[in-house]
Write a structure and sequence with these properties.
The structure holds five protein chains of five kinds. Chain B is mainly alpha-helical. Helices cover 67% and strands 1% of the residues of chain B. In chain B, strand 1 and strand 2 form a beta hairpin. By secondary structure, chain D is mainly alpha-helical. Chain D has eleven helices and four strands, in the order H-H-H-H-E-E-E-H-H-H-H-E-H-H-H. Classes of the chains: A alpha/beta, B mainly alpha, C alpha/beta, D mainly alpha, E alpha/beta. The complex binds adenosine-5'-triphosphate (ATP) (2 copies) and magnesium ion (MG) (2 copies).
Chain lengths: 355, 350, 259, 291, 235
């Protein structure tokens, strides 16, 4: 399998795989929207290699069992050149051996498991690398917010735990900083009062929150009821208009590292945000934008390779330096995206860049 | 028409049907089915095993477990961890998974001995969640949310079984066959009768001399062992596991298969698993409405067959073994005088 | 030493003395009846005999050994089996399976025998099945063995309960109102059947309100009222005991009509 | 800090209690574990949100939602469960039906509202009250008052009214209930109405407290609430409330002293310990077993 | 008062009633006898609306009731003391009795009904706070009968009222049947003890495997050889 190039078809297919149903469907739908938008743009420009690009969407419900089946379905279709997906690392990693064995390119915009991209040379990730982001997060706490009594709150997922672990090590290595408390939470509850009480009692003045918007916003709300002066640091995957919608005043002043900034003056980004809002009625989040770029990267690699032969495309991916809405992206030897970050904060109900 | 149908359901035809189905299953992969279909067949097989196990506990013994994913998880984790860290062979790792699942179910059953009905169900639900939390929190051993990766494929005499060479599929068939056979042997014995008696009327069962707690514990252990075996097979088939696979939803899916298929039947487990696993795949064209319709199907199936799809009372006569029939025939219709039991050797006096 | 001896047992529920120092004994091969008004404590006595309730005071000896405060299983295995006032069959099992469950206690094969289908397994299964069929035939259910228990009529269900109790290898049968819900014709058949059981060597304790049964079959009768024994003796004695007539039988001896 | 954590736990427990009452009610009457209750609860919260977005004002929105969710409860019974009763099916068949219904409701909510977390208007937010260095929010107090009120009303209905007597009769013996002249289907539908309405009240209060709604909000909370109902002795309404509080406090203390990832495990361990000690829950009556 | 024409009832595939024709006149006691499984209980359950007939009609005081739900039938004045007692096991004796009067609105009437049944069954009064499930079998039977009396029905149907009762209570029940009948209640009675049933009743129907095989004046039928042999246990 895998030599789709020999076919004289006039379409090139890209698969999107992610949760379109179930608890995490907001993210999967974001994937689908983003990829379709990117593909639409390419098709308007005449497709890739003169062929029309077609998006095929697979719902995995964020379940490993379904992902495994879908992966078989995807590799069974020789017109598909690559997969954008899956959402959770655990789900991606169930599917990736199948992709790897069948030489199918997988670019996950969200997988964050440290070992994900080492599943094989066809397996890529276009998500921020935890250690880089953790470092910036901490730097924000110290230098942008000027706090030193740090608390860490993290969700118990591969990403949250890894981020918290790295942040913790960085704090411990720095004499000037105090790690006053570290709390982990399991997704599923909206009650953070126990953690808040602990942070308050430990005398934290800044909390680094390794969670998505749906953790950060309610946590901020509950915290600020008790201590309005607390400073909060987030991460790029919490960067979503929903953070502000949900957090309201409580998320004012929350600061995070980002690679995608919707308020950027860059015309490319402006036009992307505009188009996205026009088409789907809401502003794209960081994760959605990573999916958008993932599709762009894949298509660019096809064009660079000049063929739909997946092996050639894969090699192009290792050479690519893609200028997208989430910054300049290139992959290292194991397939992790390297990104550059800026910082943003919430001010008056909007994201603004921190200089 | 109806006559032909009932003719076809006669016991003498059963063997023929079973043989035909087994043969079809064996030759199926040779028809060039896609790996996608094969994978789904394998998932059906795994859930049929799980249902078969849960059926022993819930379908026959009447103890509703809402936390069976725990044993599935234990089988998967123990086997996966042993295979990845100690490089144990699949079959040995699986055995270990089964044993640990059995021991853990024994502990659960012994602590919850006095619980009945919904209270027992909730205790099992709690147990399922506790096990999942352990998987998530006991990071040095389970790797926490990072899960276990690179789980080796099963290999048999140095021959690696993969999806592509149909090895995994046949392994599934063999396992399912063994589990079905075990269940069949157990159910058709005094143990099975004790199980059913407990479900029907626990107190009356005690008056028949059945040590009901012992048998309930046994049912727990048998069903947990089977779940453990299925978990181990799943882990080596899918090759990456994390705590998210073994949630309450998984327990509910198993239970749904048992009930929808028909509690206390064998055929119901296969059919139930086939339907509930295949439907979500078959309904993909519905996109976002996929699980709305899935829910609707559950509701409708229960509405029209509340006793389960295949849960009907057999109208066939009870099967007397040849030996028994002969003994009875010899006896003819001779008058029988019942006499109380006086110990085996002693002659009975009037 | 009697075969089964109940020595001054008591049971109270809250403030209610349901059974108050009741004693009686029964010899092997006897049929005795316990009668008394509704709520006198008869079923409670059975419940204490069979380990449903613990006893508050007293002693129960069977074949010289104490058996009170044992679990139902232990009581059954010592040879005492019962039927229930409110029928408790395994309704979704077949008639023969109900009786096979009764043979459970006398089926001595192991889990391994089950899995390997050893000779031992086959022998026990065959013997017990034959035994079950024999019991059912003798009680008149020989042609219903394939039916499900709940499809039987009330009278037949009562018979099946007795058959199931016999199958446990009981020596003593405790029958709680076996004739309830039977018409005179059927009670008469039941009476005959109980007689043949006695002739076969069974010991039987009967609770029954149908005097045509009680008076015709009992070797001795004990009368309980408000938890206390108020009379005992031969059927005739009891039937003419003024206390019994006042508390239980009512004005006339109606039973005589049918005998 | 312990005192504060206990208070945190009580507030959390109140939210479980609010949901638990609905579980307990339906179970108490029908011996049915109503797995759809969690999604009915989410439905109630979403309806408030929808009516608010239609500019109906918060209070009318809440009342409309309570009504509509109550009707949803009735609809569930009428279309899906009543046919099962008619066929005298085994109780567990109803369990699968309610699971199916919960799939339908949850996924419909996702399609209509999206799976994301949405903001919910704060209810009765008058800031924090500080008593002896323990911080209690006015919303928490409000929530407790409403829960106790709800419990009192439900208890009154069940124990002191005619329909309540009918409900209790029904839970004991359906056949006899018919023979007493009780309109069984009406009483069951009414029970489902109460269950739905109580779910909507719970949904509104809890969403108002956390200021969040999303379609799967009833899943974990529902599971805990259901356990709480069982812990208290399922079918006993005040048991459900006490059970909720116990689960909430044990969670909170577990989070405080062991860490947030142990809270679920600990609350379930407490559940199992309570059940092992009291197999019928704290206030559950032993099943009447007369041989 | 009650007219039944060509009544058919099924349990799934089992054809339990195969075209029953029967009538009960105002003020009568009618007894229904027949061997086990003949369909006696099924007949009463069908009248009470708990089983839906597959064919035929039941009219009560000129109104078709076979299509009515059970609670409507109760409201029309038909009350059944069912086979198997069917008490509410977890409710107290007095709550059970209150439920017996569920359809009655008049508080004073309910009160007198209570007084009446407590007088008839002093045991129930003594145990009014005991949960019904722990009553002895006979006590439960008394409760079931008492409960059926609570609604002061126009047609009272008793399914084996003597089951499990002591002889003196049985005698009392039969006296009771006659006395409430004299006060105007119409009664349908099923009894295994056909002798007693026929002694108190005006007319008798004999049921055999779902069909009426004999019917007539109780006084005459009791002399019928066939009846004697099959149901009275005397040869
Ligand atoms: N578990 C219990 N709790 C409270 N009271 C009980 C319990 N069991 C029995 N009783 C009471 O004890 C008394 C004796 O009951 P028992 O069932 O032994 O009567 P019985 O003699 O068998 O009567 P019957 O002839 O009516 O069956 C009754 O008044 C009954 O109400
Ligand atoms: N729930 C049921 N399911 C199936 N068959 C039933 C059911 N109830 C009764 N039957 C069957 O219907 C027929 C009539 O039963 P019914 O109970 O009316 O008899 P009966 O005359 O009242 O007998 P009994 O004297 O035993 O009470 C019988 O053959 C019985 O087996
Ligand atoms: Mg009794
Ligand atoms: Mg009957």
């Amino acid at each position: 399998a895998g030599t789709a190039g020999s076919k004289a078809e006039s379409v090139v297919k890209i698969a999107v795989a992610g949760p379109l149903t179930g608890d995490n469907s907001e993210y999967g739908i974001g994937f689908k929207n983003a990829v379709e938008l990117m593909v639409e743009e390419w098709n308007e420009r005449g497709g890739v290699l003169g062929k029309t690009i077609q998006v095929v969407v697979y719902d995995d419900k964020n379940s490993g069992e379904e992902a495994a089946a879908i992966a078989e379905k995807i590799v069974g279709d020789s017109d598909i050149v690559g997969v954008i997906g899956h959402f959770a690392s655990g789900v991606s990693m169930v599917a990736s051996p199948t992709y790897q064995e069948n030489k199918m390119i997988e670019i996950s915009p969200t997988a964050s498991h440290p070992d994900y991209s080492s599943e094989g040379d066809y397996i890529f990730r276009n998500n921020s690398v935890i250690s880089a982001e953790a470092e910036i997060g901490l730097d924000i706490a110290i230098n942008n917010l000027g706090r030193t009594n740090i608390g860490i709150l993290s969700i118990k997922t591969d990403w949250g735990s890894s981020t918290a672990g790295i942040t913790k090590d960085l704090i411990l290595a720095n004499d000037k900083l105090n790690l006053v408390a570290q709390e982990e939470i399991i997704e599923g509850s909206d009650d953070y009062s126990a953690a808040v009480t602990k942070f308050v009692n430990a005398g934290a003045d800044v909390i680094i929150v390794a969670g998505m918007y749906n953790t950060l916003a309610p946590f901020a709300k509950q915290y600020k009821q008790v201590n309005p002066d607390i400073a909060l640091v987030g991460f790029s995957n919490a960067y979503s208009y929903q953070l502000i919608e949900l957090g309201g005043e409580a998320v004012e002043g929350v600061t995070f590292p980002i690679s995608f900034f919707s308020g950027s003056t860059d015309p490319e980004i402006q036009s992307y945000v505009q188009r996205y809002i026009e088409k789907y009625g809401s502003a794209p989040s960081a994760l959605t934008s990573q999916a958008y770029d993932s599709a762009g990267i894949l298509l660019q690699a096809i064009e660079n390779a000049g063929t739909t032969d997946r092996e050639k495309i894969k090699e192009e991916l290792y050479r690519i330096n893609y200028k997208g809405v989430t910054g300049d992206t290139f992959f290292n030897a194991i397939g992790d995206a390297q990104k550059t970050y800026v910082r943003a904060t919430v001010k008056n109900g909007a994201f603004v860049k921190v200089e | 028409m109806k006559n032909i149908l009932s003719q076809m359901l006669l016991p003498q035809f059963h063997k023929f049907y079973i043989a035909a189905i087994i043969l079809t299953l064996i030759f199926l992969p040779l028809l060039g089915l896609s790996q996608y279909v094969l994978r789904i067949m394998i998932m059906i097989g795994i859930y049929a095993m799980l249902a078969m196990g849960l059926n022993m506990l819930t379908g026959y013994t009447g103890q509703v477990s809402l936390g069976h994913a725990a044993f599935y998880a234990i089988g998967a984790y123990v086997s996966a961890l042993l295979a990845t860290t100690l490089q144990l062979n699949f079959f040995i790792a699986m055995l270990a998974g089964v044993v640990v699942a059995a021991i853990s179910s024994l502990l659960l059953a012994l602590t919850t001995l006095r619980l009945t009905g919904t209270y027992l169900s909730i205790a099992t639900l709690g147990y399922g969640e506790i096990i999942r939390m352990i998987l998530l929190n006991w990071e040095p051993v389970t790797n926490g949310p990072l899960g276990v990766r690179n789980i080796p494929r099963p290999s048999f005499l140095g021959y690696e079984l993969t999806l592509a060479n149909n090895g995994i599929y046949y392994l599934m068939l063999v396992l399912l066959g063994i589990i079905s056979l075990l269940c069949y042997l157990i159910i058709n014995s005094k143990i099975g009768r004790a199980f059913i008696a407990i479900k029907e009327d626990e107190l009356a069962a005690q008056f028949m001399g059945i040590k009901t707690t012992g048998y309930k514990v046994l049912a727990f252990v048998i069903s947990a062992s089977i779940a453990g075996a299925a978990g181990s097979f799943y882990a080596h088939m899918i090759r990456y596991i994390d705590p998210n696979t073994f949630t309450f939803d998984t327990s509910i899916l198993m239970l749904s298969i048992v009930i929808l298929g028909g509690m206390g039947t064998f055929r119901g487990m296969y059919v139930g698993a086939a339907i509930l696993i295949a439907f979500p795949e078959a309904l993909r064209f519905l996109a976002a409405y996929r699980f709305v319709v899935y829910g609707l199907i559950l509701v409708l199936m229960m509405r029209f067959r509340p006793q389960g799809l295949l849960g009907w009372r057999s109208s066939n006569p009870y099967r007397l073994s040849k030996q028994v029939s002969e003994m009875l025939a010899q006896e003819g219709n001779r008058e029988i005088t019942l006499k109380p039991f006086e110990g085996k050797e002693e002659a009975v006096k009037g | 030493m009697a075969f089964l001896e109940v020595k001054s047992i008591s049971k109270h529920f809250g403030g209610l003395m349901a059974v108050d120092q009741v004693s009686f004994k029964i010899e092997k091969g006897e049929i005795i009846s316990i009668i008394g008004p509704n709520g006198a404590g008869k079923t409670t006595i059975f419940n204490m005999l069979t380990g449903v309730y613990s006893i508050d005071a007293g002693e129960i000896d069977f074949e010289g050994k104490p058996i009170h405060n044992r679990s139902p299983q232990e009581v059954v295995s010592s040879g005492i089996s019962r039927t229930f006032q409110n029928i408790r069959l395994f309704s979704n099992m077949r008639v023969i399976e109900n009786v096979l469950v009764g043979t459970h206690i006398d089926t001595h094969y192991s889990f391994l025998d089950v899995l390997l289908r050893t000779k031992k397994y086959k022998k026990y299964e065959a013997e017990n099945t034959v035994k079950a069929v024999e019991i059912l035939r003798s009680i008149g259910l020989g042609d219903r063995i394939h039916d499900y228990a709940d499809s039987l009529s009330y009278g037949a269900q009562r018979k099946l309960e007795i058959a199931r109790a016999i199958a446990t290898n009981a020596k003593v049968l405790l029958l709680d109102e076996p004739a309830a819900g039977m018409n005179p014709q059927e009670s008469e058949e039941l009476l005959q059947f109980i007689r043949t059981l006695r002739d076969g060597g069974y010991t039987i304790i009967l609770i029954e309100h149908d005097m045509s049964v009680v008076m015709n079959i009992s070797d001795r009768i004990y009368v309980i009222d408000h938890g206390k024994k108020i009379a005992e003796g031969l059927p005739d004695e009891v039937a003419n005991n003024p206390r019994v007539i006042a508390a239980y039988l009512g004005g006339e001896k109606k039973y005589a009509e049918n005998s | 800090m312990i005192v504060q954590q206990i208070f945190n736990g009580l507030a959390l427990g109140m939210s479980y209690a609010l949901i638990a009452v609905g579980y307990s009610l339906v179970f108490g009457i029908l011996r049915l574990i109503n797995f759809s209750h969690g999604s009915v609860y989410a439905f109630g919260a979403h309806m408030v949100l929808m009516f608010v977005s239609m500019n109906l004002g918060l209070i009318p929105a809440i009342f409309l939602s309570i009504l509509l969710t109550g009707l949803l409860g009735m609809l569930i019974d009428k279309t899906a469960l009543q046919p099962l009763r008619k066929k005298k099916s085994i109780p567990i068949a109803g369990l699968i039906t309610t699971i199916g219904i919960s799939y339908i409701i949850q996924n419909m909510l996702m399609i209509l509202f999206g799976s994301e977390r949405k903001p919910f208007p704060a209810l009765f937010d008058k800031g924090m009250i500080n008593i002896l260095s323990v911080q209690i929010s006015s919303t928490q107090v409000f929530m407790m008052v409403v829960s106790i009120l709800l419990l009192a009303i439900m208890t009154f209905v069940i124990n002191k009214t005619k329909i309540g007597l009918a409900m209790r009769a029904l839970s004991q013996n359906v056949k006899a209930a018919h023979l007493m002249g009780i309109n069984v289907n009406f009483v069951v539908i009414f029970t489902f109405f109460l269950g739905g309405a109580s779910a909507a009240i719970a949904g509104t209060l809890i969403s108002g407290y956390y200021q969040i709604v999303y379609p799967t909000m009833g899943f974990v909370a529902g599971l805990k609430a259901f356990s709480a109902a069982v812990l208290g002795g399922i079918g006993v309404l005040h048991g459900a409330v006490i059970g909720g509080l116990i689960v909430g406090v044990s969670e909170s203390l577990a989070a405080a002293f062991l860490g947030g990832t142990y809270r679920d495990a600990v609350s379930f361990i407490v559940l199992i310990i309570v059940l092992v000690l009291k197999p019928d829950g704290l206030f559950g009556k032993k099943g009447i077993m007369k041989v | 008062m009650l007219k039944i024409h060509n009544l058919n009832t099924h349990y799934g595939n089992i054809h339990a009633l195969k075209g029953i024709d029967l009538a009960v006149n105002q003020g009568e006691i009618v007894s229904l006898i027949g061997s086990n499984g003949a369909g006696k209980s099924t007949t009463l359950l069908t009248i009470a609306g708990l089983l839906k007939p597959t064919a035929g009609s039941i009219t009560f005081k000129g109104r078709e009731i076979s299509n009515q739900p059970p609670h409507e039938i109760v409201k029309m004045g038909i009350s059944l003391s069912p086979e198997g007692r069917e008490v509410f096991p977890g409710l107290s004796v007095s709550e059970n009795l209150t439920l017996g009067a569920f359809i009655m609105k008049d508080k004073a009437k309910i009160k007198t009904a209570f007084e009446r049944v407590y007088e008839l069954f002093p045991r129930l009064k003594e145990r009014r706070n005991q949960v019904a499930g722990t009553l002895s079998g006979g006590e439960q039977q008394m409760l079931a009968i008492a409960r059926a009396l609570m609604a002061e029905p126009q047609l009272l149907m008793l399914d084996e009222p003597s089951l499990g009762l002591a002889p003196n209570i049985v005698a009392m029940i039969f006296e009771l049947i006659q006395s409430i009948n004299q006060q105007g209640t119409t009664i349908m009675l099923i009894e295994q003890n056909a002798n007693m049933a026929m002694n108190v009743s005006h007319r008798t129907y004999v049921l055999e495997t779902g069909k009426i095989s004999l019917q007539g004046d109780s006084k005459e039928l009791i002399k019928n050889q066939e009846v004697k042999r099959a149901y009275l246990g005397v040869v």
